[in-house]
Design brief:
heterodimer, A: 392 residues, alpha+beta, three-stranded antiparallel β-sheet, 15 helices, 10 strands, globular, B: 157 residues, alpha/beta, Beta Polymerase, domain 2, five-stranded mixed β-sheet, two-stranded parallel sheet, 7 strands, 21% helix, 30% strand, elongated
Amino acid sequence: MAKTIVPIGPYHPLQEEPEFFTLTVEGERIVAIDVQVGYNHRGIEKLSERMSFDQSTFAVERICGICSTSHPFAYTQAVEDILGVEVPPRAKFIRVIIAESERIHSHLLWLGLAGHFLGYNTVFMWAWKLREEILDVMEILSGNRNNYAMFRPGGVRRDIKAEDIPGVLKKIDSIVPTLEMLKKAVMDDPVLHARTKNVGVLSQADAINFCALGPTARASGVLRDVRKDAPYAAYDQFPWEMITRCQGDVFDKLVVRVLETFESIKMVKYCLQNLPEGPIDLNIKDIPAGEGIGHIEAPRGECFHYVLSDGTNRPARHKIRAPTFMNLPTYKATIVGETISDATIILAGIDPCYCCTERMAVRDIKGRKMYDGEDLIRLSQEKTEKIRSKMK
Amino acid sequence: MTREEVLNNIREKFKGDIKNFLERSPKRIYIEIPSSALLSMATYIFKDLGARFNIASGLDTRHNFEILYHFSFDLLDLIVSLRVVLPKDKPEIVSLTPLLEGANWIEREITEMLGINFIGHPDMRRLLLPPDWPEGVYPLRRDYKEWDPDAIRDRGV
């Protein structure tokens, strides 16, 4: 059969970051994929070299709109590594509260969109409704629904008021029953099993070779979670479970994220109930010369920052590695051999960042346009519909 | 394997190659090696010791280029960074991509940002910079000057 080239992009069909995929297909089956990125390269590493250590915290917060706390978290850890200091216990707990609330909202956002791509708009609406509660919690705690500006080298900027805690706990408790229901609905649904089981499998060997991170790696049986392996902030001060699965397909990635949400809820509640008293900041003035590494577990995997200081008030070099940088190339291993109607959910499976801008074109080799992004989502939704009607 | 065993194994096996062994803290080790020893050392750390490749950081130190290859031993809470110093007039080094696929993109990134040549890289196309960016202009080098008079990217921060 003749090979057809399917270009997708430069806007990601599903997510925020502009990317360009070239799928080579034989009939319905994908035989090769090539990914091009860089359409939104902002040069933040270069920008950061001209900002003071405090200003860089805000610059890196704007790298990602969804996991906006993970970059300042890793960056402040890197600066604290240069200094060789430990932040005060209260600041550690506040950091965990912010980071884990963010993980809840990020995973719920993914779950909702994954449901939408598969034609489960009920899942989409429930998940986003629950996410709204978490955004309200973030607003109470930090004053912002996004870009919380809570972190600074040496501690946090804003304290959590004791009178806010009961209200926040009530809000978090209110989402648990619905989330339980959603979990059951998602995990016991035979149609969903048919759509996601054995689809887009990332083997354990490939996960190691591609250095995959976060839920993408943990769904493939690679036991890797920075919170467990290199406990930072307060993650070693309370019990929690690392969620792993071993099939590596889209279903396992989904299960890992859903169960992690429950772990995060437990952590946030524990931290709010056991918040230690004391200062929240070390009031660091000068950063000495030296180099430091900070890495943390963002919702999508390990976020890695390397900071070199030459003794001035700005970083001499600031290297940033977001988790998607390592997870995106795993498409090479997961998508080949699958069908176009499964492409959307496999591309979404690693959870790159999302957005409303959708533009995708499917062309045959002569350049005649056949499908656009909405058509591909429709294809995916129709496949679910077909399976659903067969099962009735 | 314990932390001491890992570090002693590395020290023993590459006795002649290690130029500088720096323990900045119990969790952070920086090892300076010549570029000729990189492939064998990375193979040993990644394949035999089972470390994970975090990322590589390229630096322009004004006098020469440096690449730091960060490997983390997840179970030991330890990050080992291999530091390779490259001369300014001949910035080239062997590619790690044939050994581990995770190095593919970062080597492409360092090539276009700093102009370091990775020998043996299978797919050295442009990754991040736009297609109209001129050849031979490397934005993360210290001597970088804005080349486009109409650009707004370099008007101060």
